[in-house]
Each structure stands twice: as structure tokens, then as C-alpha cells.
Amino acid sequence: MNETDDLIHRALTEEDRALLARHGEPGYIRQALGLFRGPEGWVGMLAYVTALVAFAGFAYAFWQLWMATDAVAAVRWGVVALLAFQYSAMMKSVMGTRVEANRVLRELKRVELRVALAQDARPGGVA
Q1: Residue 96 phi, psi (nearest 5)
Q2: Is the pLDDT of residue 123 over 80?
Q3: Rounded mean pLDDT of 108-114?
Q4: Which pTM does this prediction carry?
Q5: Angle at 4 between CA 31 and CA 7, to 5 degrees
Q6: Is residue 95 a contact partner of residue 52, using CB atoms and an 8 Å limit?
Q7: Which residue among 11, 54, 88, 127 is the one 20 to 30 A from 5 at the CA level?
Q8: CA 43 to CA 36: how far, in whole Å?
Q9: Dihedral sign computed on CA atoms, order 88, 93, 98, 102
């Protein structure tokens, strides 16, 4: 934790700490599996499946490159292997940015919850 996190932690009440503990940061696997849920879950599934297919294509093309005896065939299989690997890596980075975007949205929801709790705690209720 950094200095700002320490200041925030000291400012929290026990109720706030319990709330944050209950809605804490999920682990990496749970965050990654979260890409397949919700209204855009099909996009995550499509990206994951195409990345797997591209990686399998890369493995096959690389094997063909390794076994090629003709230079022209080796270059062709090498280009296919390179493109398939690039696509697979690109899909992995797209999914990684979606995980990070989900983390930011989760933090924004926590801030919204804190603001709502602070407004309810004020005398007279909502501002």
C-alpha cells in the first residue's frame, strides 16, 4: 500500500471496512472468468475461442515450418505461423485490457457506494 491508501484506510469506519472486506478485490481467476459473464460475455467467449484456434493454427504452422524441406514452403508456413501467433497475442492483450477496465468499473462502483452512504449518513438524508 502507498501513503494515500494508508490515509484512506485510517479514515474508514468499522462499518466501511466490513463493507469493503465483503466486496473485496476478486482473485485473478475470478476476474478472468468474469469476462464470460454479463451482457458482453459472448464477446469475451468469442475472443477466447478465436485466440485458442489461432494458437492451434500457430502450432500446426510452426510444425510444418520445422518439417519443410523446400525454402518457399518454409517461408509460407513461417508467415502463417507469425500471423497466427500475432493474432493470438493480440486477443490475449485485448482480454487483459478488459480485465483492467472491469477493475476500474468495480472501483468506481465502490466510490459511488461510499458517496451514497455518506449522503445517507448526513442529517436530513439525501442532499
Answers
A1: -65, -40
A2: no
A3: 81
A4: 0.67
A5: 110
A6: no
A7: 127
A8: 8
A9: positive
**Domain layout of the chain by residue ranges:** 53-110
Closest CA to 99 of 31, 25, 45: 31
Average pLDDT, the chain: 83
Q: How far apart are CA 31 and CA 28, in angstroms?
A: 5
User: Taking the CA of residue 4 as centre, how many other CA atoms within 13 Å lie in the half-sphere pointing to its CB?
Assistant: 0
Locus of grid cell 484506510: 9
What are the b/e assignments for 34-51, b being 16+ CB within 10 Å? bbeeeeeeeebeebbeeb
Name the more confident of 9 and 87: 87
C-alpha–C-alpha distance, residues 87 and 93, integer Å: 10
- C-alpha 85/C-alpha 60 separation (Å) is 11
